[in-house]
Amino acid sequence: MKNKSKQSMETTYNEENILGTEKIGKLIRKFAIPSIISLLVNSLYNIVDQIFIGWGVGYLGNGATNVVFPITMICLAFSLMFGDGSSAYLSLKLGEKKDKEATKGVGNGIVLSVIVALLFCILTLAFLNPLLNLFGCTDALREFAVPYGRIIAIGIPFMMIGTTLNSIIRADGSPKFAMTSMVLGAVINIGLDPLLIFVFKMGVSGAAIATIFSQFITFILNVLYLRKIKSITLSLDSFKLKFEAVKKVVSLGISSFITQMSFVVVAAVQNNLYGKYGALSKYGPDIPITVVGIVMKINQILTSIIVGITVGAQPIFGYNYGARRFDRVKQTLKYILCTSLIISTTAFILFQTIPDKLILIFGSGNELYMEFACNTFRIFLMLCICNGVQIPSGIFFQAIGKSSRSIILSMSRQIIFLIPAMLILSRVAGVIGILYAGPVADGIAFLIAIVLLTIEVRKFKDIKESNVVEDENTNAIHDNERKLVITIAREYGSGGRYIGKLVAEKLGIKFYDKEFITKMAKETGLSEDYIENTEQRRNGIEEISNYAGALSNSDELFIKESEFIKKIAKKESAVIIGRCADFVLKDKKDVLKVFVYNSMENKIKRTTLYYGLKKENAEKEIKKINKEREAHYKYYTEREWLEPSNYDLCINSDSFGVEKSAEMICNYYNENIKLH
Questions:
Q1: Whole-number Cα distances in Å, 154 to 117, 122, 189, 276
Q2: Which of 7-16, 251-260, 261-270 has the lowest average pLDDT?
Q3: Of 260, 278, 296, which marks where a domain is finished?
Q4: Is the pLDDT of residue 537 over 80?
Q5: CA 261 to CA 89: how far, in whole Å?
Q6: Is residue 550's pLDDT more than 70?
Q7: Comparing C-alpha atoms, which of 430, 157, 122, 384 is closest to residue 276?
Q8: What are phi and psi of 420, to 5 degrees?
Q9: Higher pLDDT, residue 291 or 98
Q10: CA–CA separation, 207 vs 184, rounded Å?
Q11: Is the domain of 372 the same as that of 444?
Q12: Please, are residues 321 and 400 in contact by the beta-carbon 8 Å criterion?
């Protein structure tokens, strides 16, 4: 299956782990471009709407869309909670081989989205005016906000259900389809906007119709996808609400909900403050609300590019941090910070020198409108350069597994500093004081990012020096010993694992199988049960993080296990079971690669006797597991699992039995490896 994780892993494990060897700049360009495109599509979706409304209706039309926007953000928060929660539930349950529960989680997530979408549609239509008041609507804006909001409310079910399904489709292993349905909707919206606004003279109502029609197209495409969903089979029973499934879906998606709702809170506070203090100024309430909404959307382009670049570096950060290649981690961080600072500095120059040209893209206004727009660019975004450090820092800490620091940096500007600064400075300096809250929040968040980055980078040196001492001690002990490794790939039910254990005992060397699971649990934070059921099973599931180019749990496990295998092979002699170890160690000389197989009849006997399988289902289960092992091997190595030329020794355990097979491996090992 070719998806973005597959592309990432092809880049990672072909050509000897190029995440650890390829030039940093080349890697970042390869990973970052899809991320940037994905984020820019979302940003431009709203910006293009505002451009056409600005020219076709005027700045009051744009102000009206800004006070309606928080309503759609609330709906989006719920749809992401249900979509991301369902996706995570699907991933976990498939990993645990509980397909029926996975189906139930997806069905319940869709039903929740439908119920809440219809409820929001009804409530928004019934209480539109109070909601608009809550988000800072003025009398002048109401003329445009009410018709726009009513039409948008009608489209809420299409938007919410379509968004929920989009997350599920990505989790089903079809990110390209999910991207296509989203991009197609955006293209249709861009095409309909000028037609309905300028040709049919429908004003903001035309823009709203274009929006909900594009959402309807995405909704239809995503609903049709459910008929061919790959990882599960949906039935009517899947859509019957079950408390445990609902509870789990909501709990898994609550992070997405909180993140999205934080933007709603900021927008509500911001609009009300601009309306209140704007009314006390020469600008009035409408100009500040309109201008700030437009400026924030322009700034979102800057943010999207910086986030896209840094997300492209996530697998590079994670891989090299896990491999303790801190020089490459620092090199990547330096590259990202320099690139982001160049982009944010360019944006700063544009915001400071030609703010009037930028605001005119969205239509013209009177002298006060232009004056406040220039002030907003120059004051509110005065320290936008700091975004080139603060944004990458949060993503960097996420990539290396420091989630608490990532959360602090992600929430610091928007919630912790911006809102208090707006509330305080508005009382001191009115509407202009609110603008100064921007650089205050940016500056403080920047200082925190610098401090945390400095502390973390200094730790690299300490860890590296500690590792050097450990390696020197290890080398002193083992320099005179040859490290001889036996890798055993085996069909399920062939007795290969037991044969490997006997070999290790006979040769007096270490045996590695379950030890990998314990090691990976400690490094990833995932449960041992989940790892055991996921590590050699590709199901195409994407992670909760919607960043383009991010690696899945299976990919991360493969990377970490491969590094662990190489570390073992360097340090000691051992028997290693499965995990593509023959491929991972393909360039090491002292390795004996073994494949163990047998007949289906004896597989059934062994699995029913030792593994507790029911005889009537044994053959089906054996074929399923071996097919998964074969697919896993092919995915990561691009080799055929059953190809004899991949191995030094292929043994039919039926012909010799496990004891004799183990003895044969030991003899072959002594004659062909140890003595040479």
A1: 10, 8, 16, 30
A2: 7-16
A3: 278
A4: no
A5: 22
A6: no
A7: 430
A8: -60, -40
A9: 291
A10: 17
A11: yes
A12: yes
386 & 501 share domain: no
**Number of compact structural domains in the chain:** 3
DSSP state of 362: T
Residue 327 counted as domain residue: yes
Residue type (1 letter), 355: P
**Same domain membership, residue 416 and residue 315:** yes
Q: Of all helices (H) and strands (E), which one includes residue 490? A: strand 485-490
596: closest CA among 666, 512, 655, 640? 655
> Greater confidence, 457 or 355?
355
pTM over 0.70: no
Give the residue with greater pLDDT, 368 vs 94.
368
Contacts of 675 (CB under 8 A, 6+ apart): none
Whether 128 and 146 have beta carbons less than 8 Å apart is answered as yes
d(CA 175, CA 171): 8
Report if residue 107 sits inside a domain. yes
Q: How confident is the model at residue 142 (pLDDT cuts 50, 70, 90)?
A: very high
pLDDT class for 525, splitting at 50, 70, 90? low
Residues composing the chain: 676
Left (φ > 0), alpha (ψ -120 to 50) or beta: where does 488 sit?
beta
Q: CA–CA separation, 435 vs 431, rounded Å?
A: 7
The whole-angstrom separation of Cα 479 and Cα 571 is: 9
Q: Where does the pLDDT of residue 25 fall: very low under 50, low under 70, confident under 90, or very high at 90 and above?
A: confident
Contact 273, 434 (CB under 8 A): yes
Q: Which of 479, 495, 523 is the last residue of a domain?
A: 479
Q: At what angle do helices 4-13 and 24-56 cross, to 10 degrees?
A: 160
Give the span between the Cα atoms of 569 and 581, in whole angstroms.
Answer: 10
3-class DSSP state of 2: coil
pLDDT attached to residue 50: 86
Q: Tell me, yes or no, whether 533 and 410 share the same domain.
A: no
- Taking the mean position of all CA atoms in its chain, how far away is CA 125? 34
Say whether both 436 and 390 belong to one domain: yes
Measured CA to CA, the distance from residue 203 to residue 43 in angstroms comes to: 22
What are the residues whose beta carbons fall under 8 Å from the beta carbon of 56, sequence distance 6 or more?
194, 197, 198, 203, 206, 207, 363
- The enclosing domain of 495 has a CATH number of 3.40.50.300
Tokens of 285: 């309430």
Q: How many CB atoms lie within 10 A of CB 210?
A: 25
Rounded CA-CA distance 400/463 in Å is 14
pLDDT at residue 494 is higher than 80: yes
Supply the pLDDT for residue 674.
55
510 phi and psi angles, rounded to 5 deg: -70, 150
For residue 425, CA distances in Å to 267, 368, 377, 438, 442 come to 17, 22, 18, 10, 15
